[in-house]
Specification:
The protein is mostly helical. Helix content is 60%, strand content 0%.
């Protein structure tokens, strides 16, 4: 008997089941790091990764060591988060090779008292990302030895982040160009260190132009009152000068600018009444 082949029922191949991959340890650690950065320190993770790609491979322990270093200098968490958000490169710095040398310089060379270190850093976080040998020490030498600053305080450590050749000297030279001697300029900046933080193009030039062309003042007044450059041109200098001009009065810079708006208006009224009395 010849056996006939049976009709075989061909079934479709059974679909294979592949379980969804479990997140790798590295992925979990990466997310943990970002969560810590955002929720614990209030730092924008996207900005941090964009401005400091090395942070992607940096372990959470390194971030915590930076946090611990800054906290040990008295910087509270709220300020610490703001600083790290401003300078994400700090996130991957080595505290011992990058940060502690800055603190050592401020404490032992600049002679900033330990309680004031926090104030210095909060006022100028950029100190933390400046090289001691190439930036901070040359600036200190210029300020103390060339200009004659008797000391740098937590209020003036901001000057240490300025390049001597690129920033400080050009500002000294510009002030000299207004008709001041080098000695006079040095005396001005020692009395008002904030002068060295102002922009030549955005501050000195427009205010000097208004001072000489519109106010017809003498450079001697700038020597007496260098704080002139610290007042807003549009917000205070022009409005007050124009009011005085409108009523035919003139005042020294100090009297015109140092008083509050209420005191200035009262002074103007009194001057008008005095004139009528005569």
């Amino acid at each position: 008997m010849i056996l006939q082949p049976r009709n075989l029922l061909l079934l479709p191949p059974q679909a294979s089941f592949t379980p969804s991959p479990k997140p790798s340890n590295s992925g979990i650690l990466f997310r943990e790091k970002l969560i810590y950065l955002e929720t614990h320190l209030n730092v924008n993770p996207q900005k941090a990764l964009q401005q400091n790609p090395d942070f992607r491979s940096c372990p959470l322990s390194s971030l915590k060591s930076v946090e611990g270093c800054l906290s040990s200098m008295g910087i509270e968490r709220s300020a610490l988060g703001r600083i790290l958000d401003m300078y994400p490169q700090l996130l991957t710095m080595d505290p011992y090779s990058d940060l502690y040398p800055v603190f050592d310089f401020l404490l032992n060379e600049v002679r900033i008292p330990f309680p004031d270190i926090r104030k210095s850093i909060i006022r100028c976080p950029r100190l933390l990302v400046c090289d001691v040998s190439n930036q901070l020490r040359p600036a200190l030498k210029f300020l103390t030895q060339e200009l004659g600053f008797e000391g740098i305080t937590c209020n003036t450590t901001v000057l240490l982040v300025s390049s001597v050749q690129g920033t400080l000297l050009p500002k000294i030279e510009y002030l000299q160009s207004l008709g001041l001697t080098y000695a006079e300029v040095v005396n001005m900046v020692i009395r008002s260190p904030g002068l060295l933080t102002f922009s030549i193009h955005n501050n000195f030039k427009p205010k000097a132009e208004y001072f000489f062309k519109e106010m017809n003042k003498d450079v001697k007044e700038l020597k007496r009152f260098p704080q002139y450059f610290s007042f807003s041109l549009e917000g205070k200098i022009k409005p007050r000068h124009r009011l005085l001009l409108e009523h035919g009065f003139s005042l020294p810079l100090r009297e015109m600018l140092k008083v509050s708006d209420g005191e200035f208006n009262a002074m103007l009224i009194e001057m008008r009444l005095d004139r009528r009395a005569f």
